[in-house]
Amino acid sequence: MSTSVRTSEEMRPRVPRRxxxxxxxxxxxxxxxxxxxxIGAWKAYTVMFGVGELMLPPPETVGTALVELMQGSLIYExxxxxxxxxxxxxxxAAVVGVALGIILGKARKLERVLSPFLIATQVVPxxxxxxxxxxxxxxxxxxxxxxAAIIAxxxxxxxxxxxxxxxxxxHRDLMRVIQAPWWKRVISLDIPxxxxxxxTGVELGIVFAITGAVVxxxxxxxxxxxxxxxxxxxxxxxxxxxxxxxxxxxLGFLLYAVTAAIRxxxxxxxxxxxRPTSL
Length: 279
Prior knowledge:
Elements: H1 8-11, H2 20-48, H3 59-71, H4 74-106, H5 108-123, H6 126-137, H7 141-165, H8 169-177, H9 182-220, H10 224-234, H11 238-266
């Protein structure tokens, strides 16, 4: 009578592999349903409480305004300007934030020295520094770019610091044993190991960047989506104001979706990419 020894791999319970398409299909079903529920609640609120169109226009009025807005050229010019300010500010924030995060992640004493000043750039009310940016850089896109950058860089820097400090000490010791130069350690160890954290900061950074650009346009600009929303508010076109806000939301969602797709492509092996794994 022969017996066989089962390995730990064979003894492990089999779990059905969850298909990635199942999650995507669920999102394609639930997202439109939730959107319909939101629009229905919006319409019911305006009817039941008799809210005037100046305060809260019904969804069909906003839809008509959105169609009218998209038929003109003004909205596309505004999108182009806001998109330019957002992407340039985001790129600037990414370069500074990731580079500074790598440096501070490896130099704890330097981080303790600079930490109060870096935190001060975030805790100061952004509305208060917009006039300074307008004074220094003018009313053009430059001031909005710096506004987007200063809001977005901190979250990317912090996530990079966390990523650098999450590297296992054994890996660092190995680099010391083989006497790898500092640049080799950064390229071969620091960046790959901290990439999931860095990409998390990138996802958040793009959201903060478009927020900073729009806030800058709101408070001191005559171009872009923020300035267009201010114009509609001044003209008491609340329906158009809602339409501009919808365009802002869609633009922000698309930018976030692009960064999320880059994350899934760059680190498909990591849990944070959102892809299901099988046991």
